[in-house]
Structure formats: C-alpha cells, structure tokens
Amino acid sequence: MTEDRYSILFEPVQIGPVTAPNRFYAVPHATGHGWNQPHGAIALRAMKAEGGWGTVAVQITEIAADTDMANHPMERIWDDSDIPRHTAQVDAIKQFGSLAAIELGHGGMRCRNITTGLPVIGPSALPVLRPEVPLQARAMSLADIKKFRASHKAAATRAKQAGYDILYVYAAHDISLLSNFLSLRTNQRTDEYGGSFSNRLRLLREVIEDTIEVAAGDCAVALRFSVAEPGAKKGLKHDAEGRDVVEALAELPDLWDVNISGWSQDSATARFTDEGYQLPYTDFVKSVTSKPVVGVGRFTSPDTMVSLIRNNRLDLIGAARPSIAEPFLPAKIKQGRTDEIRECIGCNICVSMDSYGLPVRCTQNPTVSEEWRSQWHPEAPVISSARQSHLIVGAGPAGLECALQLMRAGHNVTIADKQSYAGGRVTLEANLPGLNSWARVRDYRLNQLQHSANVQIYLESEMTAENVKEFDADNVIIATGATWRRDGVGCSNFDPLIFDSVTVYTADDVMQGKLKNSSAKEIVVYDDDHFYMGSVIAECLAGDGFSVSYITPLPTVSTWTDNTLDQPRIVSRLHDMGVGMYPNTLLNSDGSFTSTINGEVISLATDAIVMVGARTANDSLYTQLNTQDETNNVHLIGDSLVPGIIQAAVYSGHKAAREILQPENTVKHREQVALQTY
Ligand code: ADP
Ligand code: SF4
To answer: Which residues pair with 446 in a beta bridge?
Structure first.
C-alpha cells in the first residue's frame, strides 16, 4: 500500500498532449547498449518501465551520419532502416503503461565521425571539445545549418513514426551542436547565428519550432538544457545567460528537462556531492515557466522527492543513476517497501563503462545489462525446486548478495563473519572521507536478510575448515575477501620488495585505525592501485593531521578515476588539504623514490609508507576445503576469488547464487548481426 505521504509522487502529469502516469521520470542516459546492441538496450529500458517509471527516455540518438559518436555506442535514427528497432523499443516501454521519450541529438563539436569519415561540424572553425583528440570542427555554412535543421526534422518524423510520446531537442552538456551555437566559448560567428544572445539562441529556437511542427500536437516536445556550466571557461550561468535562455523559450517546449554541464558536473559522485546537488542551479526554472520541469540530482529518498514537489522545485523526479541501481524504485515506494530500495551509492562505475563504450555495470544492481543477455531480473526470485541449506563464510558485498538471492529463493542461509560487524570492506571504506554511501551496499542487503526467518547471521565467528565441515551445509560459499599487500607489489611492480629501513602500513591498517596512535608524522601514501583508494587514504590521513605526500608511478593522480569523472576534484581536494603530489615516481625497497622521467632519486622525509598496491585473495579456507576427495559443493566468490572493485564482488555473489540455484540455466544471449549474402 502506498503511504499517503508518497501519493503525490503517483499523480499523473500532463506533458503537452501526453500524460505521464506518475512523477517518476527515467531521464536519458548512456547505457553502452547503443544502436548496435538493441536487445540489451530494449530490455534495460523495459525493466525500468516494469519497475514503475512513468516515463522512460532513450539516450542520445544520433540524428544523422555526420553526428557519429564513434566508440560511444549511442542510439541512431539516421534513416528509415532504424525505425523498426525504435518501434520495438517503444513497444517494450509502453507495454507497462509508461511514456516513451527519445533524445534526438547532434553531438556537434564532441563528435568524432571516425566511422563515417565526415568532417566534424560546429558553429566555428575550432578544435573539437576534446583536447586529447586531434580533430577540428569545420564552421557550418548557412547551407549546412539548413541541412542540419532538415535532418533534425527528418529524425523527429521517424521518431514519431516509431511511436515515441516525447521528442527531445537536446541542448545539454557540451555534447550538442545546439549548445555549441549557444555558447560564447564555441560560437564566434558574425552572421545571424552568432554574436548577440538572440542570434546565438536562434538555431535552438528554430529546431524546437521545427520539432513542434513535426509533433503536430500528437507528441510532446521536450528541451533538455543545461542551465549552468559550473567551472567552465565562459560557461553558462544559471543566474545569467542560462536563465535568459529559459526566460526566452519559457513556454515553447512542452517539458523542460534541466541539469548542469559538463558530464562530470551532471554525474558528480557521492564522494564530492550530496543528493540534490543540482537544485541550487536548476530550481529557478519552475518560477519562469508554466510547463512541467524535470530535474536530476541522484534522488533516492522518497521524502526528498515529495518535498521537491510540494515546494514547487520540480514536477517530475528525474533519475539516471538511481534508476540504474533500482529499476523498481517507484514500484517499491508504491507498495510501501521503501526499506527495500536499492539506493545508488554515487560511485560512477556505471559512468566508467561509457569510457570503454561497454554496456553499463552497477555496483548496487548486478542485473543491469544482464536483463536480456542472461535473462536476469532484479526482483523476481530464482525458482529452484530443491530446498537446500547454505553456509556463507564472509558477510562482505559478495557474501551478502549471494545470501540475498538464496534467501529469496526460499532456501536456508547461514552467514558467518569473523568481524563484529557485517559488510566487510564496505563497512570499513564507508568510514573514509566522502565514501559514507558505500554502506548502502551492506544496508540494502542486510536489512532484508535480518528480516528473514530463513537466515541466520553470526558475527565474531571465525570459521576454520573443521568448523565448516562440522556445519555440514549442502553448499558452502567462501566469500572471505582480500587483503591489501604490504610488499610493494602493485600495477607497476610485480616483484615483492623487502623493506628494512622504513615502516610500511597498508590501506587496511589505515582503515582499522592502526596509524592513529603511531608516532609517525610524515607519511607517504604510495598509490600503485590507481583507483580511488590511494587518494582517499591520503585525504583521510591529511584530515587526521599527518603531513602527507601522495606518490604514484603513473603520470596522473588516481588515474582510473578519470573514468568515474572524479579525477580533477580529487587533485583539487588533495591540493586544498596540503597533500604534496608526486606523479611519475617509483618506490624503492629502501623506502626512497626514483623519478621515472630522469632516474633521479627523490628524498622525502618519511616516517612511514602506506602501500596501496595490489591485494591478496583470502582463499586459504577455500583451498583447505576444496580438496580433491570433497564433493563439489564449495564455491569461491568475490574478492577471495579475485580481488576487484565492489561491483565485481556483488556481481560474483549474485552469479554464484544463480548458478547454485539453477545449475542447468546457462542462458547467455549474444547480440549478433545477420549476415547478408556476398
Ligand atoms: P567481498 O568484497 O568479496 O565481499 P570483503 O573483504 O568485503 O569481501 O568481505 C569478506 C569478509 O569475510 C570480511 O568481513 C571478513 O571478516 C570475513 N572473513 C574472512 N575470513 C573469514 C573466516 N575465516 N571466517 C569468517 N569470516 C571471515
Ligand atoms: Fe549508482 Fe554506482 Fe550503480 Fe552508478 S554504478 S548507478 S553510481 S550505484
């Protein structure tokens, strides 16, 4: 039953000629399943519709061949041959009563056009908006502008034919030709499309009008617009030209979908931002237009959502990441199951997959991108006729996820952990600066496990091979995690070092508070892991009052966090905290450091080194149990199978449960292109 206080979230919302059945709006986002992996894309979006999102939007859809996003697999609607794929997508979304929206877009100066070999185009002849890519854009002639408008209109016509309810005009982030025309940074024209504000706005207005003409009152027209570009040189500001755009076009589109730009601002992580972080920029829009407004900001709390509506800050609750982590968020609120919401933790593993052009993965939701490929459903329990007992050793992310799936299938599960707390690594990491939301990985699972009569959880229960055998469970699942190495082995050095003249701690030691009482003052954090841990340990120690230097053999700080869009913020944070940063620097066994550029030995005052390199799998219990004379009922999962990111541990636990429950079920569909005759 929906609690009264949440009923406002389930009110219908009129969007031009169409009606959204509720206020939950799954906004466009990259899925990695683009035009070339339609089955995966369709199933992912249909799952959101099934989970109750009243509107489900499709990601950037390239309107023509000259907006080829190359290795970022977007959607395409280049010509009529694309229509059947979109029709199937629309049908899949609408079968659950949701509205289907499509974000028609031209990437402008963010295109690469490598596949098509066509020139990149933009308002002015400038390098593309990717400093690392050696491409320039060609300034569009008036004839090019006419052609662009015609192709947008043609794409809108096809989208309408495919059955979409909402047609987007896309002027958000800087991944949009229309934003390029709007921006003083990229528009240096002197004709009627450049110079004054109204000239730079001209093309956006024309394209909206063109789209309204195509929609002809049958579909709604939405404008996705970034009202501010915080931190960007000559960027839009929500209290200057960003606002002027909203005021100038206020009543033209049927729906305003507003956010901030670039992508690292729009998809900021929880380490640096809280729920609702975009509202200070976007919430003025409601006061300027009478049209409905959707906005985002990693909303997962139903109470926050209600207050946003009641306080007239938004009409529709937009979500990309929260809808990836929890496709059934609306359904769970509706059914009064809010304590079962799988809240997004704001880690941006989903985002990182886009850097690789791969189907999205999620730390919290192991079933995402597996909806079609493996036929995994995030909510439906796996049906298994056998009623078995399972002993899980280790209550970290892998063990808890495995337990949850076994419990849902109605099986009896016992979990034992040697610590006095559940959650394993996420419990420890959640105490580090900015990583508080990591605890959601534990809480979502533990909460349900604790409420099940089929589940027993024993803490402070270290299991030996003897204990496990005595327990005599039908299945034993070893989820004993991994330990940070102390011996200098990391991504850049595979040979253990013998340290005799320096005290070495590990990331585990820091998280367990072992440095707090030490006499050390000058600490070096040596990062040969390159994701978030090295920098967050440095931040933690600096916050505790140590004098901290961050050293890494790679040329940049926390290199892999570039993929989670965090890297510039991490560098600023460390700088602000007075942490000295030394890239291109290798650790030697005597505790000194060598520059990888010129071989010079760097001497730093060091009382202790904190190693953040590789980890060792804690698999000794498994090795003892999995002797050849044993039956094959011992399973190794998570970090104890292979140390990795939290997402991989959760996925591993989920997969193991399914394989135990349905060993015969090996569905793995593959996207395949039908061959023509040559
Ligand atoms: P993962 O990410 O794979 O879930 P974690 O390191 O987060 O791994 O969790 C592993 C958990 O296993 C930790 O909470 C740890 O206390 C527990 N553990 C390790 N060895 C044993 C053991 N022999 N008996 C019980 N618990 C154990
Ligand atoms: Fe949220 Fe992380 Fe999942 Fe992305 S990967 S949806 S940020 S929990």
So the answer is: none
